[in-house]
Amino acid sequence: MDLHDLHDLRAWLPRALTVAEEWGGRFGPYEGHDAHRVTATAFDEAFDRFAKRMDDNYPFFHPRYAGQMVKPPHPAAVTGYLTAMLFNPNNHAAEGGPATTEMEREAVAALAEMFGLASSHVGHLTTSGTMANLEALYVARELHPGRGIAYSSECHYTHERMCHVLGMEGHRVPVDVRGRIDLDALEDVLRGGRVGTVVVTTGTTGLGAVDPVHEVLALARRYGVRVHVDAAYGGFFAILGRAGTGGVHAEPWRAIAECDSVVVDPHKQGLQPYGCGAVLFPDPRAGRHFAHDSPYTYFTDSELHLGEISLECSRAGAAAAGLWLTLQLLPLTVDGFGQILAANRRAALHWAQLLTNSRELELYQRPDLDIVTYFPATADGRLSAIDEASGRLLRDAMTADPDPVFLSVLRADADAFQRRHPRVVRDAEAARVIRSVLLKPEHEHYLPVLHERVSELAARATAAP
Ligand SMILES: *Cc1c(COP(=O)(O)O)cnc(C)c1O
Questions:
Q1: Is this prediction's pTM over 0.85?
Q2: What pairing do the DSSP bridges indicate for beta strands 122-126 and 261-264?
Q3: How far is CA 24 from the centre of its chain?
Q4: How many angstroms does the Cα of residue 181 sit away from the middle of ligand 1?
Q5: Do you find a cis peptide bond into 63, omega within 30 degrees of 0?
């Protein structure tokens, strides 16, 4: 891990033990039981085997990892999570953990404020973006029974899957040349009258494309249709977007507050360990759809129990603690958390520029956020050759010893490819391109090294065997 982070953790982690110990000491002495006691020798041996197994991993923390949207949690998140984990609160209800329930409320309020939602919102943390989206689509179904969901062909596959789970009709809408939902095609679908809610994505998982939320919203309202925003990956860019800074187009982000629900994953951009998504509803009446099988009866719009507005039961209070502590130190402002996103964004724009001038690589599409897509430049521009070179580049880069680079690939179909690069030769249905998510600010400084190394590997991947 980052040496800096480990240094912080060495200092901070013992405090987790102190907090748990001092608190526990208040409840008086009792005799331990041998049933789960293990010897130091047995632990040493097992831990050695465990540590060895952990060798088999990718260096997500290092800027030479420029593949999927993964990075280790912030030391503050680890410390908060671990401390709370020693208490093991369950945020399914306030009695499961009063302290972490309050932290969850405050952290969720901070996320809501990041999107510009009024304080009357309801929302809660979930274990993932998948669960958060499921809840939003569930509310969509309860509000428009018998009507379906429209989503773009670039949206996360979870929406199609969850429509199936919920027994709703899914309507797939094509995208424009930048991978954003196509408004004309969407209007055609809405005219049919079978859609109750449109899903827009601010930061698609593949390309990081930001749907024009403001335009979709205006269109949807004309047809009496709701709008759900899937900001699982991109959501934290609302900090820059709403402030109109960092080269992030403001309008889609400012329109989110007027939509009907929004999902964000603190375990992606938000520096949290896995197990931390969130769903928010500007209108607190959304909470009612979760209430029918709850033993509680005294709902007011503002005082719903977190467990009563969630489809999940047990939820880690520790996840709320990690997020809460992180937000104390890195508030969701342009000068706080925004600094991280601005660095990611600068790295992406810088790389896009280097790729535009590169001989070995070509930019696939200009990044809206911090996902950069590109492919090895081939002599004749055949899609099959590009596909093969991308595959070879990925493999060579990951297995290079020394000096590996970790990338990911994205499948671009021939139509999508040709709209962006009219001169490619269509001799295949699709081609893989390389995808790099630059979600660590360390990428900003490392970028020239990264670009140099990937260029070198690309030149080799396209050379005649
Ligand atoms: C990651 C992602 C999801 C799924 O979230 P998980 O936390 O992986 O379950 C949904 N939508 C988008 C846009 C995503 O990027």
A1: yes
A2: unpaired
A3: 36
A4: 17
A5: no
Question: What are phi and psi for residue 383, nearest 5 degrees?
Answer: -60, -40
CA–CA dist 23, 15 (Å, integer): 12
CA 256 vs. chain centroid, Å, equals 17
Least confident of 1-15, 174-188, 390-404: 1-15
Of 345, 325, 329, 213, which Cα lies nearest the Cα of 276?
325
Residue bearing tokens 């309860």: 142
pLDDT digits (tens, 9 = 90+) for 299-358: 443 456 666 778 899 999 999 999 999 999 999 999 999 999 999 999 999 999 999 999
Rounded Cα–Cα distance for residues 415 and 421 (Å): 10
Ligand 1 atom nearest to 128, measured from its CA:
7
What six digits make up the tokens of 264? 């964000």
Q: Which atom of ligand 1 approaches the CA of 133 most closely? A: 10
Q: How far, in Å, is the centroid of ligand 1 from the Cα of 42?
A: 39
What pLDDT does residue 87 have?
A: 97
pLDDT digits (tens, 9 = 90+) for 101-141: 999 999 999 999 999 999 999 999 999 999 999 999 999 99
Q: Where are the beta strands (DSSP E) in 313-419?
A: 361-365, 371-376, 408-413
pLDDT at residue 94 in the model: 83
Query: Can you read off the two tokens belonging to residue 413?
Result: 């179909």
pLDDT of residue 297 exceeding 50, the answer is no
Q: How far is the CA of 123 from the centre of ligand 1 (A)?
A: 17
**DSSP code, position 193:** T
Residue ranges around ligand 1 (CB below 6 Å): 128-130, 133, 156, 158, 201, 205, 230, 232-233, 265, 277
Phi-psi region of 244 (alpha: psi -120 to 50; beta: other; left: phi over 0): left
Which residues 6+ apart lie within 8 Å of 197 measured at CB?
137, 140, 143, 144, 147, 149, 150, 225, 226, 227, 228, 260
pLDDT at 159 over 70: yes
Reduced to 3 states (helix: H, G, I; strand: E, B; else coil), residue 321 is helix
Question: Cα separation of 66 and 344, whole Å?
Answer: 12
**CA of 454 relative to ligand 1 center, distance in Å:** 27
CB of 132 within 8 A of CB of 344?
Answer: no
CA angle 153–159–162, rounded 5-degree value: 145
- Ligand 1 centre to CA of 102 (Å) is 26
Report the distance separating Cα 380 and Cα 162, nearest Å: 42
SS3 453: helix
Neighbour count for residue 149 (Cβ, 10 Å):
28
